[in-house]
Amino acid sequence: MTTEPIDEKKLERAIRKIKHCLALAQSANENEAATALRQAQALMREYRLTEMDVKLSDVGEVESASFRARRRPAWDQQLSIAVAEAFGCTTLRRRKWSYEKHQVIESATFVGVSPAQNIALYAYEALLTKLSQARKEYCAGVRAGFHRSQYSPETAGDHFALAWVWGVQSKLKALVPQSDDDSLGRPTTGQDLVAIQAQDKALISEYLASQDIKDSRKRKGIDLDLNAQIAGLLAGQKVELQAGLSRGGEDQLVLTGAA
User: Fold this and answer.
1) Which of 4, 221, 247, 256 could be a cystine partner for 185, CB 3.0 to 4.6 Å?
2) Structural domain of residue 73, as residue ranges?
């Protein structure tokens, strides 16, 4: 006897209904809570879902439209890591064959509990545009002799860009609500926030494990151009970030100030 495959749309509707029932199961009304829990359990049996399956449905991944041929530079990777950490996500280096470019390309992917991954993607792409422009201008300054460096303009620009990310990193973290007003729509008292962060991290780890994704290797330390570091750090610190995040992620991050 063969089992017919479950319709994906029906499964999505069932998961939404299960989540709704599980929320009602927290009701102070014992009868209402018991009824809702029974309905949730019945649906989970019908669709052969576990509680972890339901929770994992909140985890999603989004891929950046920005890409590089073969490998993204260290400063690009560091920017995606900084953004992912700020918004409670994990970032992956996704390589694939591009039939349009006829070569392997690499882009950043963000994995998180919705809508965090979408907010992280927006922040990354907006900041990447500003960083790329700032690095380009610094490289031009090295070529013109405005900035002294013992390295080539491109290498000095890479060092500048890494420090730029360090300069903007603390501002990114400050955007994430740490008080009662949580823009992601979840309670954020001290204990609640720690519990939510731990739960989200566990769900993301479970999701990545199910995708058989391995951790990337750590990079070795490198010597950096001090002048480029200072210039990049100061430039990054001048970038102004304004939180404009709603519960559904409709209002987006606003970036202003000098690059």
Assistant:
1) 247
2) 60-256
Annotate 97-143 with DSSP letters as a single string.
Answer: EETTTTEEEEEEEEEEETTHHHHHHHHHHHHHHHHHHHHHHHHHHHH
Distance CA 120, CA 106 (A): 18
Would you say the pTM of this structure is higher than 0.90? no
Number of independent structural domains in the chain = 2
Structure tokens at 208: 């990545």
The verdict on 112 and 31 lying in the same domain is no
d(CA 139, CA 158): 9
Per DSSP bridges, beta strands 103-113 and 68-69 are antiparallel
State the chain's mean pLDDT as an integer: 77
Residue 1 forms part of a structural domain: no
Which has more confidence, 209 or 183?
209
- Whether 90 contacts 197, CB under 8 Å: no
23 plus 122 within the same structural domain: no
